[in-house]
Amino acid sequence: MTPRFPDGELDGLRARGAGRTATEIAQQPALWAEVADLVVRDGQAAAWLAPLVARHDLRLVLTGAGTSAFVGQVLAPALTRLLGRPVEAVATTDLLADPAGTLRPDRATLLVSFARSGDSPESVAATQVADAALTEVHHLVVTCNADGRLALAHAGRAGSHVLTLPPATNDRGFAMTSSFTAMLLAARLLLAPAATVPVDDLAAAAETALRSATDLAAVAARGHDRVVLLGSGPLAGLAREASLKLLELTAGAVVGLHDTPLGFRHGPKSFLRSGTLAVVFRSGDPYTRRYDDDIVTELRAALGERDVLVVDPVLPGGVPDDLRALPAAVTAQLLALRFALARPGTPDDPFPGGEVNRVVQGVTVHPWAP
User: Fold this and answer.
1) CATH of the domain at 251
2) For 106-150, what is each residue's pLDDT tens digit?
3) Which residue, 283, 277, 252, is CA-closest to 335?
4) pLDDT tens-digit profile of 302-314?
5) CA-to-CA distance for 140 and 251, rounded, in angstroms?
6) Does residue 217 sit in the same domain as residue 316?
7) Number of separate domains in the chain
8) Does residue 210 belong to any structural domain of this protein?
9) Of the residues 161, 191, 221, which one is the last residue of a structural domain?
10) What is the DSSP letter of 16?
11) How would DSSP label each residue in 112-161?
12) Lowest mean pLDDT among 68-77, 132-141, 289-298, 361-370
């Protein structure tokens, strides 16, 4: 696979300590086709899942930590609609800290764990707590690392299935980029196999987003240090992920506030001041989009038109927002990268002193018994 980046910039980005992150952002359109092919070829995963998803007595919980948790937050509202039953997103960090408040011993559960490396302390511990707390639990592990602790703990185990994505999805840069979209796409294909996923259209929209990198550099060059990121439904999870990307890649120099367009007015709007950038992830749903357009009009009146960025991927009508999140995530990642490049530092390793780590460290997992 030969990732592309616009304007022949990759050598310069490597010199700035951003080549790895840029490559991992740019490879996503090609990776999505590879992920989709893998899911289709892995008939075992579909066969294992089908009878579980058909059980309406089974609680469906999507889990992960940080960016991996946001995969679940994008997917949960969409899968609730597609499957006609509640699907919940519960972060491993919440599950581990409050098992009694997040797990239901009276309900059989399918726990879908997302993990780039699978080596974060919470990843394996959350599944162990679920095993201890629940009478019946099944584990689907979607990971980018076949050698991670989570994958190894569940490989070949009764009641578990591990789907390992192509090696290129295991981002080596500090921030999760292609791993986020690859896990999202894989889970969507697996958990709602009857729903159409236009992978070629999504990839084309992402290619269009990649060509906007120069425009985003101009936005970043204006020196914003506060960014509001808004989205509704599945795009609320993307807004949260986009906020984290800005914070991570700029080593905390740019602070993002995430919310929904309707929720933003209820207090969080006080975050606005002159020089704030607002990013609105526009829904493809005609009803929801009215609320997005209302807040865009309001923000443009407050900040000026050039300081309001509307992310609206070029896609055919009818593509649902959890899938629109894929090319929209590419724009969010590019924006964060451009903000990072407008400041000192190295986006591939924004914390060379180890203050924050690519794989979380320092977590003590305390014993728990139901």
Assistant:
1) 3.40.50.10490
2) 999 999 999 999 998 899 999 999 999 999 999 999 999 999 999
3) 277
4) 999 999 999 999 9
5) 33
6) yes
7) 2
8) yes
9) 191
10) T
11) EEEESSS-SHHHHHHHHHHHHH-SSEEEEEEES-TTSHHHHHHTT-TTEE
12) 361-370
